[in-house]
Amino acid sequence: MVSSAWKQEAELKLQNIAKDFGLPISVELYTSIAVLLITLFIFVIVARFAFKKRKSDTILLTGLSGSGKTALFYQLRDGTIHKGSVTSMEANVDRFILHSDSIKQGRTKPVRMVDFPGHMKLRAKLDEFLIQAGGIIFLVDAADFMPNVRSVAEYLYDILSKALIVKYKIPVLIVANKMDKVTAHSIDFIRKQLEKEIDKLCVTRTGISDADMTSEVLIRKEGEPFKFTHCLNKVTVTEASVTTAQLADVYQFIREQIGS
Amino acid sequence: MLEQLLIFTRGGLILWTYKELANALRGSPIDALIRSCLLEDRSALTSFQYDAPGCSYTLKWSFHNDLGLVFVAVYRKILHLLYVDELLEKVKSEFSPLFNPSKADYPDFDDTFRQLLLEAEARAEELRQANQAKSFNADGARRNASGDKRGSKSSSGLLQDGAKGDEDGGKNSKKEYISRSVESAPHHANGSTSPFNGNGSAHAGDPKVSLSSGSDEENGSTKVTEVAFNVDKLKKLKSKGGKKGASKAPLPAKDDKANKKVKVNRVWDDAPNKKLDYSNPSSNDAKETPIGDQGKSLMDAEDDDDSDLEMEEDIEVNNSKEKEIPKKKGWFSSLIQSVAGKAIIEEDDLAPALKSLRERLLVKNVAQEITDELSSSVATSLVGKKMASLTRISTTVLKAMEEALTRILTPKRSIDILRDVHTAKEQGRPYVVVFCGVNGVGKSTNLAKVAYWLMQHNVSVMMAACDTFRSGAVEQLRTHANRLQISLFQRGYEKDPAFVAKEAIREATLSKIDVVLVDTAGRMQDNEPLMRALAKLVHINNPDLVLFVGEALVGNDGVDQLMKFNQKLIDLSTSSIPRRIDGILLTKFDTVDDKVGAALSMVYKSGAPIMFLGCGQTYTDLKKLNVKSIIKSLLS
């Protein structure tokens, strides 16, 4: 009884308001408008999330097995490579403040670091981490470079030609590691060799069927040999030595990505 | 002797190695183990052999799945160390409580490990003695004497080690445990006479490493350590004139694990009485000898002469005891557990889920032995893991299996034939592919398809008709060659195929042709003369790629075919570096619907990748293997 009286009253009031605005009188109409507004609101929120500008503090460490990814991971986190490492079977994932930053006082942002294993058999999982990445560090073993140059180039090509990387312009830092060794090649040599190999790959990498090609993008400019500068995203080649902690460019790259 | 023992995370960080075994390993056996064994889902095996130039190692390993730790022991292949499995398990159970994800340095574990190693070695020694004792059953006196001698020898060895460890411990104590040692100083006022002084003071206040500390037996410290207990026991044994009987002294809760394994020594009517008394009564220091005789007496081997067998049985008994403890729970508690996600996966829990998965794989035409190996490998990777909340065991198993299958089917190296063709072209020689396989699998048909695909990528192709055996084989190829407008090299029938191929390659080099596709006669894998001919062809021409052509229709036999082809190529090869099958071409793939098991069987057994899939009758019906879709049909 009470509720019906209340309802009547409410309807009366609504009618009055409607009259003021000169609108047709119907509760259903207002409900539908309300529902519409709520749906629009939700849609806007969802759209915001979906089309938000990509901003990620995740740095992905990749490279072939034995190029020093796990060592770099712990060098960045703890400032030491501990007792060394063996071939990784799983990714190391951690969010931390860079060791060099944690010593000096001041406002520093943590970085989420993913050390992805280099073994071929685990490569299938790379896509999961590529989605999260805000920046990619690709490690190359400068001392043991020439025997592996083809597989390095293939891996690098796979990453650079991913539609995702090109679309979001994820920066890639190619680090020639183990520069402390006497047998290490110079970074100019490494860059030239990699560009040459990737150039060949651009020609031959046309699969048997085109089914798998949807996620890959052609990264080469027509009629020119491939150069890293042709990539839409920023690709830089630099040198470092993880064991002796000469990592200035790596630190610089990470700080740029996390914006601190 | 143990060469090396490593503890590392699945992420690859070495947490602890046994420093005193600092002799560097030759080659990199650990990386080889991970790359060729653990990542290929062959972890169901028990050991791994690694041959470095100069010496070969045997590796054994153990996982802690929940913490993501791997324990690997390396020893010389020629030594059959029986205690390694047991030692690994012990190390695992001792190390796990110490593990802290943010810590990467465990110097404290050195002492614990030294203790464990000594115990394990002592037990192995006991075992050997027990067996010898049995074999010399009639001759009591001789046995007794030899036993004593060996005992004293081992005890002196232990003492040396103990003293070494003592120095280390002392260093530690100065750095880290100053306050502790000050506190506990009154407890060993007479500590200077005890060689374990430094060690004891280092850990007296630290319950976690209580196992390793040993001192205080005279002043009756509140800390009753395992070693102290042993020493007590030894003293008792001595005082009773070598009479046997293990005393069950009350142990602190931390030592429960060790306590469980203490077993009453069997009294034999004719057993040597002083067998377990390794201490030399004439030496004072013997009191502190940390002989771990708290383990089970391995003299139970009454009917068994074979020490290997006996050891295994003992371990099994041990395991089964541990397994029995957690039994069936009510549905309510299991519900709570599934929500809370705390349940640790036991082997028994996995059995039903694995069984249904195995059946599913068998229905999909996967070979029997491969299903078994795979499921046990998946089981080893899951036992001991904590289940995520709100998941069922079957989903967990399915996910693990899916990951394992992805790993198996993903090729080890990239397969880019066009890239290889270009490399060969730069070197000014043709790229040679040999097709081999049993009769009627579609070698010639798929050779034509490959030729068509290569031509589409502007590569010049030549076919070599090396099937000089079956009537009409050359004509069949000629038909394909005419239709595709490519050159055919043939020398008719009744010629040696190896030389036909050789001439074809020479011809191709002269006329600057990029690829030579060599068609061979079909042969059954058990036909020795024909297999020898194939090995000869491969050896003489040294092709860039040996493709095995197999039917997707076969089940168990496909594996047999592939393995025998591979083996025969190795066995019958005359060169020192034998060739194997480099890749697989799976034909008639369109006829099997979702029964794609042959693909998995062949890849798992040979390790060679599937390079092409033949899936129809026309030239265009050649596909790349899509790992995801294969796995989907395997597990659907």
TrEMBL record, chain A:
This is Signal recognition particle receptor subunit beta. It comes from Ceratopteris richardii. Keywords: Chloroplast, Endoplasmic reticulum, ER-Golgi transport, GTP-binding, Lipoprotein, Membrane, Myristate, Nucleotide-binding, Plastid, Receptor, Transmembrane, Transmembrane helix, Transport. It is found in: Endoplasmic reticulum membrane. Signal peptide: none annotated. One of its GO terms (biological process) is intracellular protein transport. GO terms for molecular function: GTP binding; GTPase activity. The chain crosses the membrane at residues 29-51. GO terms for cellular component: endoplasmic reticulum membrane; Golgi apparatus. Belongs to the small GTPase superfamily. Arf family. Belongs to the SRP receptor beta subunit family. Pfam families: SRPRB (PF09439). PANTHER family: ADP-RIBOSYLATION FACTOR-RELATED PROTEIN 1 (PTHR45909:SF1). NCBIfam families: small_GTP. SUPFAM superfamilies: P-loop containing nucleoside triphosphate hydrolases. It is a single-pass membrane protein. InterPro entries: P-loop_NTPase (IPR027417), Small_GTP-bd (IPR005225), Small_GTPase_ARF (IPR024156), SRP_receptor_beta_su (IPR019009).
TrEMBL record, chain B:
Residues 190-200 have a biased composition (Polar residues). GO terms for biological process: intracellular protein transport; SRP-dependent cotranslational protein targeting to membrane. It is a peripheral membrane protein. Keywords: Chloroplast, Endoplasmic reticulum, GTP-binding, Membrane, Nucleotide-binding, Plastid, Receptor. InterPro entries: AAA+_ATPase, Longin-like_dom_sf, P-loop_NTPase, Sig_recog_particle_rcpt_asu_N, Signal_recog_particl_SRP54_hlx, SRP/SRP_N, SRP54_GTPase_dom, SRP54_N_sf. Coiled coil: none annotated. SMART domains: AAA (SM00382), SRP54 (SM00962), SRP54_N (SM00963). Residues 140-151, 163-178, 266-277 have a biased composition (Basic and acidic residues). PROSITE patterns: SRP54. Belongs to the GTP-binding SRP family. Its main location: endoplasmic reticulum. This is SRP54-type proteins GTP-binding domain-containing protein. It is found in: Endoplasmic reticulum membrane. Residues 129-224, 238-308 are annotated as: Disordered. Residues 609-622 form the SRP54-type proteins GTP-binding domain. GO terms for cellular component: signal recognition particle receptor complex. GO terms for molecular function: GTP binding; GTPase activity; signal recognition particle binding. It comes from the Eukaryota.
